[in-house]
Amino acid sequence: MPLLRSAPPAPAAAVTVPRRHLLTSHSRLKAPSTRPPLASLRLRPAAPLRGIPSRTWCRAEAADADAAPSQGPGDDTGARSALVLLGEALSLGFPVWVASACAIALWRPPAFLWVGPTAQMLGLSFTMLGMGMTLTLDDLKTALLMPRELAAGFILQYTVMPLSGFFVSKLLKLPAHYAAGLILVSCCPGGTASNIVTYLARANVALSVLMTAVSTFAAAFMTPLLTSKLAGQYVAVDPMGLFVSTSQVVLAPVLLGALLNQYCNGLVQIVSPLMPFVAVATVAVLCGNAIAQNASAILSSGVQVVLSVGCLHGSGFFFGYVLSRILGIDTALARTISIEVGMQNSVLGLVLATKHFGNPLTAVPCAVSSICHSVYGSILAGIWRSMPPTEKRE
Fold first, then answer.
1. pTM
2. Which of 41-45, 72-76, 122-126 has the lowest mean pLDDT?
3. Membrane-spanning regions, if any (predicted)?
């Protein structure tokens, strides 16, 4: 009997799985992930969620914020530097502008006759305000601690100039009315224009302002006394009016400028580049006005008066500097004293000559003086501005 073989086990019935389920399972278990690798995540910034800035945007904004402050002040600094350079160019060309204004005044006097007393006061006051902005209260205190320099300037002001006026009128044998006018202007105090020239020459403005104030205060006594002795005629001066005018034009604006520089330095830094324009324009217009008012007399007076006035102011500048150096005063302060001694208050002399002398030609040397000392002073300012003193005051 044949051995019965056990039948092989029947194969298990195949489980029929729908294809869609099989693929679905397989894709869930075996299919590679569709997400990008980690490296690609680092290279691809995710889109920012709504309302939340991305890291790239934040970095860009931060870079812009860092760059903005550096660009703004740079532009402002460039504009300010351009203004400073332009002011320097105008200051160095100061003699040209003054001489041009005076030439136009001789040629066309009406071009400058519009300048009245109020415009003169405002122009000088605003210029003094600008010079005061270059000072601090400590500078003024330091100037008060220089009694030797103040005394030297005062003595030279009322010795060098009056004696020079007297001897020049004798040597050139000026007519009586011209001699009286020359002596009168030589006995006047230092003019406010000396403060402007000192400012342009980069000398000691604080000392210049104080010297102008001291000589002006003393002018109430010194000007009539010296004029009466040297010219033989007494000249009356209103001391209170002189004091008020000096305070309005010199002391008050300079003190205000120093206070602004002390407590509002930001505002001063903005407007200070404009002040050389104001200084140059003011001096040129005022000199042109003084010439225009006496144009016919100046043209008819000839070379003699111009030569005498030139010798007067040249002597003041020269001896003011040389004698100061002999007295041991340093270069910067000697330059200040030279400018103060060489430049007179010609407008005061013009007013006194017109009011107290009968002959109108007496005012001619005073009018010529306004242009002569401005040209001399501006030339010195241009030279000394480019040659700063090397020595320093202890």
1. 0.63
2. 41-45
3. 83-107, 119-138, 150-172, 178-198, 205-227, 239-260, 267-292, 298-323
CATH number at residue 295: 1.20.1530.20
Count of domains observed in the chain: 1
- Say how many Å lie between the first and final Cα of the chain, rounded: 144
In a domain, 359, yes or no: yes
Q: Residues 60, 63, 69, 72: what is their CA dihedral angle, to the nearest 10 degrees?
A: -60
Give Rg (Cα) of the chain. Answer: 41
Q: How far is CA 62 from CA 45, 47, 55, 58, 186, in A?
A: 17, 19, 10, 6, 68
Tokens found for residue 118 = 């109020």
Contact 180, 233 (CB under 8 A): yes
| 3-state DSSP assignment of residue 35 | coil
Q: Which of 171, 190, 109, 184 lies closest to 359, judged by CA?
A: 184
| 56 domain-assigned | no
Q: 116: domain range?
A: 84-383
In whole angstroms, what is the distance from residue 385 CA to residue 202 CA?
A: 6
Q: What is the tens place of the pLDDT at every residue in 272-318?
A: 777 777 777 887 888 788 788 878 877 877 788 899 999 999 999 99
87-117 per-position pLDDT tens digit: 666 666 667 787 888 889 889 999 988 888 7
The answer as to whether 391 is a domain residue is no
Distance between CA 127 and CA 5 in Å, rounded?
133
73's CB contacts (< 8 A; 6+ apart) are none
Residue type, 304: Q
Nearest to 209 by CA among 261, 144, 274, 145: 144
* Residue 295 belongs to a domain: yes
Are 308 and 168 in contact, with CB atoms under 8 Å apart?
yes
Residues near 166 by beta carbon (within 8 Å), at least 6 away in sequence: 183, 186, 230
